[in-house]
Request: fold
Amino acid sequence: MTTAPKKIFIDGEAGTTGLQIREKLSGRQDVVLVSIAAEKRKDAGAKAEILAQVDLTILCLPDDAARESVALADSLGDRSPRILDASTAHRIAPGWTYGFPELASGQSEAIAKARRVANPGCYATGAIAILRPLVDAGLISPDHRIAINAVSGYSGGGKQMIADFDSGKAAAFQLYGLGLEHKHVPEIMAYGRLRARPLFVPSVGNFLQGMLVSLPLALDDLPGRPKAGDLEAALAAHYAGAAFVRVVAAEASGVLAPEALNGTNDLEIRVFANESRRQAVIVARLDNLGKGASGAAVQNLQLMLGL
Reply:
């Protein structure tokens, strides 16, 4: 018996994430992509007609527009499709399941059953991938004051940033978010199980895509004064058997570039340490457009639709 392909609507398919999701799904036999005419993208009636006929819609929209699309879908009652939201709007909202399958035992099953799934932020994916296993293992206290440093390729910064870098107008490297109110912090706290607000310092470099998220730690300030090997063991145990997240040995050179996982849905974690100084830096490497956006969306879509 042949199963009919699942119908997918990417609401906001013209943006960077939407285009990448469309590319990843094109050519598959188990899904059919349904589109809306460009001139009707803001026509609520036309959008409602599409929402009523698809199995799942992926929202690649600004936050306010994503909320409007969710309200429109909710108005359809039993005809409402399942929703995967790639915006920031619903990541810590009640009734939404967080779309990081490797977060904890049972998270993949929760995503598979959910009607509403919020795709994680790119920086948050790297930070939570490091933090959650260590907090759960008691190696980092939820009240510990931590700093998170990160650098991303410029493709995650929107059309204007992409144009500035492509034209040579932008600086080779820049810090940003220095008002210390970055939109990913609430989800890092919620799913990293932190009570103390982390100091998060993002930056962007003159490369298209790729990401490094790093957590510096003074080992003697942590519960039980662990060794770096204890941190690595806890991380490895958490991700044992995971298809896309793995703990790998740190390079002896102490050098790590951000672009090696581009085009994949993979995430790597390394523990760089100096035991004599009792210091460590844990680094997550991922593609900000892959595991940090479109790759994660496709992974969640497959779980939600049983593909």
